[in-house]
Amino acid sequence: MESLFNEAFIGLSLASILLMVALGLAIIYGTMGVINLAHGQFVMLGAYGAWLLQTTFGLSLLVAIPVVFVVVALIGLGIERTIVHRLYRRPLDTILATWGIGIVIEQLVRAGFGSDSRYVARPAFLEDGFLFLGAYVSSYRLFIILFSLAMLAATWYLLFRTEFGTKLRAVIQNTEISRCYGISAKRVYALTFAYGAGLAAVAGALVTPLVSVTPTMGTSFVVDAFLVVIVGGVGSVLGSAASALMIGEASAWLSFLSSETTGRILILLGVIVLIRFRPQGLFPDTVRR
Amino acid sequence: MNKGFTVDCIGYALFAAFVLLLMPWMVDFSGYELNSYARYLALGVVAAAVALSWGTAGILNLGQALTFGIGSYVMAMHLKLKASASQPGGMPDFMVWTNVESLPWFWEPFRSLPLTLAAGVLVPVIVAGLLGMFMFRGRITGVFVAIITLSLMLAVQLWIINEQGWTGGENGITSLAPLELFGWSVDTYSLPFYYLAAGCLLAVLALGLVLIRSKAGLVLRAIKDDAARVRFFGYDVARYETIVFSASAAMAGVAGMLYCLVLEFASPTYMGLSLSLAMVIWAAVGGRESIVAAALGGIGVNMAEGRLSDLFFDQWTLMLGVIFIAVVLFLPRGLYGLLDGAREMLSARTGAVRENAAGAGKVVPPTGVASEGKTD
After folding, report:
1. Partner residue opposite B148 with nearest CB, options A35, A111, A275
2. Is B173 within 8 Å of chain A by CB?
3. What are phi and psi of A265, to 5 degrees?
4. Would you call B135 an interface residue with chain A, using a CB distance cutoff of 8 Å?
5. Which residues lie across from B185 on neighbouring strands?
6. Which of B159, B328, B333 has the most A C-beta neighbours within 10 Å, making it the best mutation to test the interface with A?
7. Which of A55, A197, B194, B287 would give a disulfide with B334, using CB separation of 3.0 to 4.6 Å?
8. Rounded Cα gap, residues A246 and B119, in angstroms
């Protein structure tokens, strides 16, 4: 019983990290159709941001989160305005261009900070854990779960309860007509890309106490996050959340039942079959386009 | 004979001259350099493979390194068995270290060279054929093809790393024997080996061009433009897509075998995400519409990498990233697009001159007749 709960909890914390990374990706892909392969590098920038703020200014991780959100969002804005906005008519080419952007970011970070692994301490009051139903629950993992739920709620609120969200959804449904109503699609796209990049950075900052920070850490995130977005269904925020939960739990359980590698292989194969039979995703956005 | 075919022939002849004559001469026939150049040629083959499915049929395969890696493992397994012939039971050393009792059944066929060479092409074709049927029968296109191919490649790579006793795991298959071809022990630092690689490249490109210029190639280009319309005409779109997908896998298999010969080992990184995306980018730099241009892209980028990474070390990777971004932004059709654009501008100008000369003296013919004569 303890181990069951343990696996479920670890799966939940995996899922919440995945969700944070995938959420930004889902919004960018859903809005602009851009496959942002540099998303993993935004995660990495967030992680380095947290590390830098902690080692040079002694700032706690909690303080670092809003800072990296703003900084990386601005970087994302810059990238969108200089490069990505030229490619909206060529979605497959965005794969290549953003991969190139990823290489550049990775190399700049490597040149700036070296390739050594960096570690970030978790906030002191989340250092410990407690026993729940006989299983050990790390306070920090619990914090990540709650935080990602909060970000999900915030994103949902942004999309469905604010003026920006209304404009964003209008642009997704029909760019031309929204332009006729005076919505600046250009502005909406730029802000969406920036928000997605910011979310990735927050995810990066959050995982720093759990994994070591290296310039190459981004690549592993981007593949998983992409699987989440595709499985969840394009343009569906809650679908991404559900599929992050599924994939996170599945990897925790499969690694528990066999090995971590076998678990990953099975998930990849599962995703292939799923895409084949439901390319629209499990929870597609039902709005007519 | 259409215009595209003539352009192909001229491009191919120039390319053959470049590869066969100019490149060995450029490096002064030095064995070390020839070995590096043979590596560039192998990578040129795989770039052409990417362009074959991407440029012709619009199928972006982000897992091209999977079939490339299979080719290299097939070759490595043969050479490893040869190197381990003196071991007890002919077992490769890494199997002994991991306590594998007997040689796994799927290693047995690779004792024979003809079977190995056939497998290097056929196994990728079978894998791609099955995957292609699976995907294209479900009318999967675009981004979803990219994600499926990528996922399968990562799954196979993980499996290879995991099954250390059978595959050599993370280390790959190392310390190989030299290949023996018709009694010739292949020295990879020699001119004959370079010509072997060049011959493979040219043969593969010629076959690719034949496919592109055949009727199947025409249907494939139509599929790229509008798959639904081709379907309405009664063509089996999935079958054509599977054919080109498998053909591209065969090319990648050949490239993988060559690559393994040059580097003298096979490693799971051959199926890695970075290499696979790099292949796509080489094809994009050269020009995805022409497999010859894509091959040149593969050769050129790797040649530049060989030269510049010595001079700039880490900054080279940075430059590479910048080049990729620049190519995608400003040269969406690659270097081929640049040439093609120049050629079109030139022919438009000479065409205009000819028309002026013709229109000056004679009576202007009725417009209907004129356009009828021009449209074919």
Report:
1. A275
2. no
3. -60, -45
4. yes
5. B180
6. B328
7. B287
8. 38
> Which of A92, A65, A89, A77 has its CA nearest to residue A205?
A65
Residue B352 pLDDT class (50, 70, 90 cuts): low
Q: Is A212 left (phi over 0), alpha (psi -120 to 50) or beta?
A: beta
Amino acid of residue A280: Q
**Structure confidence at residue B358 (pLDDT):** 54
**Digitized pLDDT (tens) for each residue of chain A, 289 residues in all:** 567 777 788 888 888 988 989 988 888 888 888 888 899 999 999 999 999 998 888 888 888 999 999 999 999 999 999 998 888 888 788 888 998 999 999 999 998 888 888 888 877 777 777 777 667 778 888 889 999 999 999 999 998 899 999 998 888 888 889 989 999 988 999 999 999 999 999 999 999 888 889 988 888 888 888 888 888 887 678 888 888 888 888 888 888 888 888 888 998 999 899 888 888 877 776 554 4
* Both tokens assigned to A59: 């700032």
Q: Which of B152, B161, B325 sits opposite A97 (nearest CB)?
A: B325
Picking from B262, B349, B324, the residue whose alpha carbon sits closest to that of residue B34 is B262
Rounded Cα distance between B300 and B15, Å, is 12
Domain ranges across chain B: 3-357
* pLDDT beyond 60 at B232: yes
Q: Is B315 on the interface with A (CB under 8 A)?
A: yes
Closest chain A C-alpha to B124 CA, distance in angstroms: 18
Do the Cβ atoms of A129 and A13 come closer than 8 Å?
A: no
- Looking at beta carbons, which residues of chain B come within 8 Å of A277? 138
| A78 to chain B, closest Cα gap in Å | 15
Tell whether the torsion through CA atoms of A224, A226, A229 and A232 is positive or negative: negative
Fold of the CATH domain A2-277: ABC transporter involved in vitamin B12 uptake, BtuC (1.10.3470)
Amino acid letter, A119: Y
CB of A13 within 8 A of CB of A245?
Answer: no
To which H or E segment does residue A129 belong?
Answer: strand A129-132
What is the token pair recorded at B222? 């139509």
Inter-chain residue contact B155 with A96, CB threshold 8 Å: no
**A contacts of B140 (beta carbons < 8 Å):** 275-276, 279
Cβ distance B148 to A272 less than 8 Å, yes or no, reads yes
Q: Where are the alpha helices (DSSP H) in chain B?
A: 3-17, 23-26, 31-51, 57, 64-83, 93-97, 113-136, 142-162, 164-167, 191-213, 215-225, 227-232, 237-263, 273-286, 291-312, 314-330, 334-361, 367-374
CA distance A58 to chain B (A): 31
Residues 6 or more apart whose Cβ sits within 8 Å of residue A129: A136, A137, A138, A139, A140
User: A220 to chain B: nearest residue by CA?
Assistant: B273
Contact A268 B315 (CB under 8 A): no
What is the per-residue pLDDT for B230? 93
Residue A66 contacts B, CB cutoff 8 Å: no
Q: Is B50 on the interface with A (CB under 8 A)?
A: no
Which of A90, A92, A93, A108 has the highest number of chain B CBs within 10 A, making it the mutation to test binding with B?
Answer: A92
Residue B148 at interface with chain A, using a CB cutoff of 8 Å: yes
Interface of B with A in 243-282 (CB under 8 A): 273-274, 277, 280-281
Alpha-carbon gap, residue B284 to B332, rounded angstroms: 8
Instruction: Enumerate residues 6+ apart whose C-beta is below 8 A from B316.
Output: B305, B308, B309
